[in-house]
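Lab notebook: predicted structure, single chain.

Context: the supervisor wants predicted structures on file for every construct in the current expression panel, including those that have not yet been purified. This is the next one on the list. No modifications to the sequence; it matches the entry in the shared construct table.
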Amino acid sequence: MGLTLQWFPGHVGKARREVRILSGQARVIFHLLDARAPISTFYPELTSKKKTIIVFTKTDLADLNLTQKWKLFFEKKGYPVYLSKKNDSLQGLRNENFWGISSFLGKAIVVGLPNVGKSSFINTLVQRKKTKTGKIPGITRGPQWVKLNDKMYLLDTPGIFYPQNIPQEKAWRLAVLGIAPEKIYIEQVLEVGEFLMRYVRENYSVFQDQSENYLDFLKIFGKTQGILSKGGAVHLENAALRLIHDFQRGKWGRMTLDKPVFI
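Prediction complete. Output recorded below exactly as produced.
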């Protein structure tokens, strides 16, 4: 059974309508993408007819070679691209010359899917804590303007998610990245874990000495991690979830889920 993502809570639907209105007032759009899946987290609907700056987040967790390829991909489409990493001061983005706009005056909007780092981005850019942040996708609740300096205000928005069904592998990638909440794929966590295990085996030097049979692999992995049920058997769902969490923390090194074939 394929994974279907239909996470579209009411506050996100309302925020999306508000963002469409407010984006009409903005002169610049900062579109945040998870560097581990840039094309899967790209939302082209929000970039039309506006000056858009692409910001790759979590680059310290992504495959360095593929990050550079994706950067070139977006630059060829006319987007300035900024590579951000953990604890980045974003000093380069405070330079108006980077935006290609002279005498900038007005508002900018920050957009992106849930959990790509929008609130942390704006908090860092304004150099003070202003918006709610957290690991739960969609924790920011309403659009709010934040003053950057005497010339510019930034709008922090809740992450915007697709209300319609999305392609199978893209759904898996969004689940693995933590963009989709665990509660909407928890019943299919074994499928998500299998996608992740097979992807990293095929594309990186990880798990090469482990069984190619997914369930056998998961039993060994769960046992070594001490993920056991009361009877002593490996809790397969929790083991798959640990596999996903390990990837999110970068435990196996820098990896990217969007393959070069997409470019």
